[in-house]
Write a structure and sequence with these properties.
This protein is of the alpha+beta class. The chain has one domain: Alpha-Beta Plaits (2-Layer Sandwich), CATH 3.30.70. The protein contains 5 helices and 8 strands. A hairpin with a 5-residue loop joins strand 6 and strand 7. The protein starts with 6 loop residues before the first strand and ends in a 5-residue tail after the last strand.
Length: 198
């Protein structure tokens, strides 16, 4: 897709403790394979929090945001979801975000040992470029950082930032470098890759 902006589907979930084992089995054996079979889904990676909530995060990279409007996706989502999907999702707290990757535009989610997820609330469209520049300067100087990606949500003025890193990065150290955007930061959670063997 050259320089086109990829789409994304980011889902953060908090299953009840009594359902966690079933939740993970459903995700690994049905949900991820089902999503990856939809044309336009480029990757699917799962993560588990090492500090904060929600406990689980799934990141799907899409060829473009409107993949989620396709007939192939509609055939396995919403009212067309499987009975197991309906059972699990009816009991799990879900925060689902859709949009486009604005920085760098077309990078896929990697296999870093840590993933820091930041959410900036209410950044208007004309603030995107400044936000990206500020984040590059704040995270680019850290040896731990392996990749920085910025995502704009379709349904709000929220922006999600995924920082892939070799090791945890202390957000408190970076707050002064965020300038005016520090006040818009309302979520900062660190995740590790989900491993069903652990």
């Amino acid at each position: 897709m050259d320089n086109a902006q990829y789409g994304f589907l980011l889902v953060m979930m908090q299953p009840p403790p009594a359902m966690e084992e079933e939740f993970n089995e459903w995700y690994d054996t049905e949900h991820v394979p089902e999503r990856l079979a939809v044309p336009g889904f480029l990757s699917a990676r799962r993560f588990v929090s090492v500090d904060g909530h929600p406990r689980y995060l799934a990141m799907y990279d899409l060829e473009r945001p409107d993949v989620l409007d396709s007939e192939a996706y509609k055939a396995v989502s919403g009212e067309s979801s499987s009975p197991w999907t309906k059972r699990v999702t009816s009991r799990v707290l879900v925060d689902r975000r859709i949009g486009r990757q604005i920085e760098p535009g077309n990078a896929l989610t990697g296999r870093a040992s840590r993933l820091m997820v930041l959410r900036f609330h209410g950044i208007a469209g004309n603030g995107e470029a400044e936000l990206v520049t500020t984040l590059r300067e704040a995270f680019g100087k850290h040896l731990e950082t392996t990749r920085l990606r910025v995502f704009a949500c379709s349904e709000s003025a929220d922006h999600y930032v995924l920082v892939e890193a070799h090791a945890p990065i202390a957000i408190g150290v970076l707050l002064p470098r965020l300038g005016r955007f520090a006040d818009a930061l309302d979520l900062a959670t660190t995740y590790a890759p989900y491993d069903p063997r652990l």
